[in-house]
């Protein structure tokens, strides 16, 4: 997909979902005028998951510090962005399945990522409400779902 249309589509999705902070964060991290990388690894599922892992670690270390809640809410919004992007990146483990099994696996994979995105939205809201106990519980749920997904599809 053309970079411009990808950006417009992504921004439309974030605004439609009521995630204006995610849209701003996406624009901040996405230079529309940048040359598209020739490195396929840069836009790969692996790279996307590394970004998610990094954000998750940052959130895990910040969840007990209410003074970091504003930044943590932004990081949770970034998790939403990356989980939604990952829905369009099919893991090799699914691509290598027989055709009859692929559709079911893709549907399950996308459903898991949507659940991760939904939990991340709730996580952002918890940080915005200064509900660090709730945020901690949501991080545990996200981590549990992540482990399930990795066991199935990594």
Explain this structure.
With 154 residues, the chain is mainly α. It has one domain: Four Helix Bundle (Hemerythrin (Met), subunit A) (Up-down Bundle), CATH 1.20.120. The chain contains seven helices and no strands. The chain is globular and about 50 Å long. The two termini are 26 Å apart.
Tag the structure with descriptive keywords:
7 helices, 154 residues, mainly alpha, single chain, Four Helix Bundle (Hemerythrin (Met), subunit A)
Task: Characterize this entry briefly.
The protein is mainly alpha-helical. It has 7 helices and no strands. The longest helix has 30 residues.
Percent of residues in helices comes to over 70%
Q: Give the number of helices.
A: 7
Euclidean distance between termini CA atoms: 26 Å
Radius of gyration: 16 Å
CATH class reads Mainly Alpha
Chart the SSEs and their pairings.
Blueprint: H1 3-16, H2 20-29, H3 45-62, H4 69-86, H5 92-95, H6 99-128, H7 132-153
Helix pairs in contact: 1-2, 2-4, 3-4, 4-6, 6-7
């Amino acid at each position: 997909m053309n970079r411009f249309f990808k950006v417009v589509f992504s921004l439309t999705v974030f605004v439609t979902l009521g995630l204006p902070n995610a849209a701003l964060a996406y624009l901040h991290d996405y230079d529309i005028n940048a040359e598209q990388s020739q490195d396929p690894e840069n836009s790969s599922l692996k790279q996307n998951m590394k970004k998610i892992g990094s954000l998750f670690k940052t959130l895990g270390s910040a969840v007990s510090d209410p003074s970091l809640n504003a930044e943590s809410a932004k990081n949770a919004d970034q998790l939403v962005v990356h989980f939604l992007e990952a829905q369009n990146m099919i893991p090799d483990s699914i691509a290598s399945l027989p055709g009859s099994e692929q559709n079911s696996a893709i549907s399950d994979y996308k459903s898991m990522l949507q659940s991760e995105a939904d939990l991340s939205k709730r996580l952002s809201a918890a940080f915005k409400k200064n509900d660090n106990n709730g945020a901690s519980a949501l991080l545990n749920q996200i981590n549990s779902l992540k482990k399930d997904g990795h066991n199935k599809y990594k």
